[in-house]
Every structure is written in structure tokens, then in C-alpha cells.
Design brief:
4 helices
Length: 159
């Protein structure tokens, strides 16, 4: 190759290298901008979640709060009530875990104290709980009947 061809090839290679560097810099700038936007959006979402996690937790607690005794007393399925309790408890733990993670992302440190603490795992003991539920519901039904009998069969509606 002649010197002129070498110089021309070097110039083309240098121009291509400059164009490549410019494209890589623009790509890095765009990636940095996307990362900054994503981080800002995540901060906003974390702040919004932290403002409402306790309400979500309370809603789940309320929906799983019906006891097996209440279910038996009302004539509905106590096993379903127990199952709903445990499902909602697991969901509450998911909400609480997300709250702790959001707090960490927002503040850069783990929350102190009992903030969104994990609800302890307990033995389900479904048979024992069902026996207690039936016993309690039976007592409630007996008390209802006693009240009904007193109101119907005692002068003045009871003693």
C-alpha cells in the first residue's frame, strides 16, 4: 500500500472511531437519563406506597378477621374462614415486606423499631381451632335460644 492509501485509511478509521465515541457517549447519556427518571419514579412510587401501606394492611386484616366461631355461628364454612385468615395474613406480610423495602429505597437505611414488622408464623392447628370454633358457636346458639325461651316463657321477658 502506498502512503496516501494508508493515510486515507487512517483518516477514515479515526473518523469512524470519533463517530463511535460520540454514539457511545450519547448512548451512555441516554442510559443515565433513563436511570435517573426510573429512580425518580421509584422514589415517587415508594413515597406513595408508604403513605398507604397501613390502610392496605388494615383492609387485609379486616377481610381475614372473621373467626371460625363466627362462621359456625352464622352457618357458613368455618374452614373457609380459617383459610381466608391465613391467606390474608400471608398477603399482609407481603405488604409489610414491600413497605420495608420501599422505606429502604427511599431513606437508604432499614426502618427502625417495629415498622411494618413481619407477622409471626403460627401453627395452624386447624382441628384444634375448628373444635374451639364449634364449641364457641354452640355456646352462642345455646345463649340465643335461652334468651328466646326466657323472653317467651318468663313473665317480664326474663329474670
Amino acid at each position: 500500500m502506498t502512503d496516501a492509501k494508508l493515510q486515507k485509511a487512517r483518516a477514515v478509521a479515526e473518523k469512524a472511531a470519533q463517530e463511535l465515541a460520540a454514539l457511545e457517549a450519547a448512548d451512555a447519556d441516554k442510559a443515565e437519563q433513563i436511570a435517573a427518571e426510573r429512580e425518580a419514579k421509584q422514589r415517587d412510587l415508594d413515597a406513595e406506597f408508604l403513605a398507604q401501606w397501613e390502610r392496605l394492611d388494615a383492609d387485609l386484616q379486616e377481610s381475614g378477621n372473621k373467626s371460625a366461631s363466627d362462621a359456625v355461628y352464622e352457618g357458613t364454612d368455618p374452614i373457609a374462614a380459617v383459610a381466608v385468615f391465613w391467606v390474608e395474613r400471608a398477603k399482609r406480610n407481603a405488604v409489610r415486606e414491600h413497605a420495608r423495602s420501599a422505606y429502604f429505597r427511599l431513606h437508604g437505611e432499614h426502618p427502625m423499631g417495629g415498622f411494618a414488622s413481619h407477622l409471626s408464623d403460627r401453627d395452624m392447628m386447624i382441628a384444634d381451632r375448628l373444635e374451639e370454633a364449634i364449641s364457641r358457636a354452640a355456646s352462642l346458639h345455646a345463649a340465643d335460644l335461652a334468651d328466646e325461651l326466657d323472653s317467651k316463657w318468663l313473665v317480664g321477658g326474663g329474670v
